[in-house]
Amino acid sequence: MSIIGVISDTHGLLRPEALRVLKGSEIIIHAGDIGTTQVIDELSAIAPVYAVRGNVDTAPCFSKFPITEYVRHADINLYVLHNLDDLDLDPPSADIAVIIYGHSHQPLMEKRHNVLYFNPGSAGPKRFKLPIAVGRLEIGSNGIEGDIISLPG
Hints:
mainly beta, 2 helices, Purple Acid Phosphatase, chain A, domain 2, 10 strands, about 10% helix
């Protein structure tokens, strides 16, 4: 089994509880609104990180992060972007198994046309009544299973 940690919308705040959930991941995907590059540095201490820029990541230091990222891991194709409204491809035609995104701060996990759409929610500062959460994807003999883990806060 392969574990992928998924986090988004940290806005510069990386909670210790999020780090505990992500520990043991083979890779970590950050779906944008990073807030500070220190977040990526801390995540990189756990596992290799694939990160995309979000709409708040406008400082020059974020130019090294792409707007979208194609990731192949454990024979599965994943496509990462911040805002799902900016999806610029047809996932089934592109052989994408999972679309990972953020932006809305609302955790969501649903299958559409045999593609898993996965938003881990926001792991950063509390916003309105939305939960604070991170995600995990497990790739195994039964395919891809996702989990959204709520954090205190």
